[in-house]
Amino acid sequence: MDSFSSSKKRMLTLAVLCAVGGSLPVMAAPADGDVVRTKDVIVTATRTEEEVKVVPQAVEIITSEDIEKIGATDVYQALRLASNVDVGTAGMAGHNVMIRGMDTNHTLILINGIRQAGEDTAQTQNVYALNRLSLSDIERIEIVRGPSSAQYGSDALGGVINIITKKSAKSEPSIMAGVSTGTESVNNYYHIDFGQHDKFNGTLDMRFSKWRKNVRPDSEGSNYYGPVFDVHFDGNYDLGNNQNLNFSAGYYNERSQADYADSWTSSGAFQTKKDSKEWYNYKRYDYSLAWTGNNEKHDWMIRSFYSYLKKDNRQYNYRDTFPGPMETILGGLYPKYDWDHSEYSLWGVEGKDSIAINDDHTLTFGAEYRSTDVEGTRMGDGGDNVHQVSQTGNGYTNTKYYSEKDIQTYAAYIQDEWMIGDKLLVIPSLRFDHDSTFGGETTPKIGATYFINDHNRFKVSWGKGFKAPTVSEMYMNMHRSMGGGIVNTIGNPDLQPEETESWDISYEFDNDKNWGKITYFQNDVKNLITSTPIPGLNDPDGGEWWYQNVNVDRAQINGIELELGHNFNKYFTVKATSNWLDATDDSTGERLSNRAKNITTLQLSYDDLKPYGYTVMLWSQWVNKYRWTESMGYGDDANSIPHDATYNTVNFVVNKKFGKGNRIFAGVDNIFDKKNYDVFLDGRIWVAGAEWTF
């Protein structure tokens, strides 16, 4: 393969040219008018505390203050201005979470460095994960772009999003109460800081939300809507001698539903009229216990965690009864009552230690064990302990296969932070994972930062990543009524890990008034898992289609990330980002779907720096040649027609401050009400809210 096609050469040339004259890590403007650069510290990139300007990887931090300034009411809105992170709507519910053009299931989402139990198919992994988090509980969001398997193992093909929750920061107790409403949801939320009580401190967060119903004009059904509740507790006990015991516990409950309008579907010589309604009951429980400590030489952590997600999905299809024996024959294809039940559990234990060998070397090493279990009706007859279960609703009984399967993973890793002289930092790392299904996988990574002077630096990084096939991809035998028939998806226990090899090079600059960065990256992806029709089994006339998961796809994803910023004075700041993406399916030469060729954002921020003043943000975003596909048919006759969409939105938010911890805010996305339902651009979206601290 020629990794430097003409288009890639042009992109790399543009990156170098921009770097030569480029000008970047955000500035803070204190009240005295002098502009200074903040020393943001990130822990996700290296599993140790390092300044953003130092780490070789492409990283970004979104603080709770940033979240307030853009008027976000959920985590997706908090990420909407992150560089080269796409959180676009995914179908009826949830969002894609794509970093550098990689699929949503190639992003590793962590909470305080911990994985959470969740859906594990290519279409559902991470799609709902950020819905289950309360924004008021977030201290900051750390983003690492590019493969990070050398630090975190499987799933980090595209990068990592690590959400750091708030810890107790006050000696005296306090309560923050907030409320927001808008086009998409109504929320009230609470952050309780218990303060310091002898050796104990802790926080409690609660959220009560209701997602509003929305039906697109071109859709036969609504989004998922209904009530959501979650609560999270974090407690810390000081053991003395710089040692701490931390315990956290979380609970999430969602009781949403979706409505479907009347629609006519055709199969063979007959038609049915369906008027459906679905109910979803999701519950998740999360626990962790950690022992941490540090001294002059060591900084260690030992932690155990458990996460469990339970899902019930019930569907009622209101249709006329087929005449005579046809009801018995066709009732399986078009059931009046359909039901699915799934349970996902994740248990793990991990430990690490960072040792200051000397002034030039910090050695970090660690190990972990994880056990992942999936069981339910969507596993069908593909797992262990297969048996039949029945569920009755609306006078009808649905019987399905029920089975389970689990996977164990062992891993160990080592990393060295090596300062060579006073100009060059080199960070090599290596990790080995052993999976109970496919065996071992070794992933190396090396990055370097060269400091030209205090304001200029070059960064380069190379590494490999992998994503192990999930339980569902290997063992799920799902038979589900949809699209006027039965769609059967068959797992494949012979699947191999998806793999990527990536490198990037960056130039960064910052001074008293300006900052900027330019990055070129190249990503070679292979063994992508996809679902393909099984030849000879599809029966369109009988309303039945068969698919199996296989390793077939290979892709090249390359691009440029550009960021420029300028402080006009202590009140006004302008920032521009532009991300160019060349994402191609090697087997067809076609662009990959659900990705834009370019996304450019221009932001203007104002802060009067008064405790009872205002902050205002105005930004415009241009999306150029967003590729989406129109799916036609099922099985052997399935095909996709590619389309491109180009559009621009203008967005605005204002905060009125009433002293520290108190504010009211309002904002409008897509002020000019532009619409394109094919890419889920639904028109104007508004939000308003208030927060008060006692």
**Main sheet properties:** 22 strands, antiparallel, barrel
The share of residues in extended strands comes to over 45%
CATH topology: Maltoporin, Chain A
Distance between the termini: 62 Å
Helical content (DSSP H or I, runs of 4+): under 10%
Spans of 5+ residues with little confidence (pLDDT < 50)?
Answer: 1-38, 264-273
- CA-based gyration radius: 26 Å
Q: How much is the average pLDDT?
A: 87
Helix count equals 6
Question: How many discrete structural domains?
Answer: 1
**Broad shape:** globular
CATH architecture: Beta Barrel
Describe this structure in words.
The chain is mainly beta and 694 residues long. The protein has a single domain (6-693), classed as Maltoporin, Chain A (Beta Barrel). 6% of the residues lie in helices and 60% in strands. The chain is built from 6 helices and 38 strands. It has a 22-stranded antiparallel barrel. β19 and β20 (361-376) form a beta hairpin. The longest helix has 16 residues, at 6-21. The radius of gyration is 26 Å and the shape is globular. The model is unreliable at 1-38 and 264-273 (pLDDT under 50).
List the helices and strands and how they pair.
Elements: H1 6-21, E1 27-28, E2 36-37, E3 41-42, E4 50-51, E5 58-63, H2 64-69, H3 75-78, E6 85-86, E7 98-99, E8 107-111, E9 138-145, H4 149-152, E10 159-165, E11 174-182, E12 185-197, E13 200-211, E14 226-240, E15 243-259, E16 263-267, E17 270-294, E18 298-318, H5 326-330, E19 337-356, E20 361-376, E21 384-393, E22 396-420, E23 424-435, E24 439-451, E25 456-467, H6 471-475, E26 477-482, E27 485-490, E28 498-510, E29 514-533, E30 544-567, E31 572-585, E32 595-607, E33 614-632, E34 639-657, E35 663-669, E36 675-676, E37 681-682, E38 685-693
Parallel strand pairs: 8-10, 27-30
Antiparallel strand pairs: 1-2, 3-4, 5-9, 6-7, 9-10, 11-12, 11-38, 12-13, 13-14, 14-15, 15-17, 16-17, 17-18, 18-19, 19-20, 20-22, 21-22, 22-23, 23-24, 24-25, 25-28, 26-27, 28-29, 29-30, 30-31, 31-32, 32-33, 33-34, 34-35, 35-38, 36-37
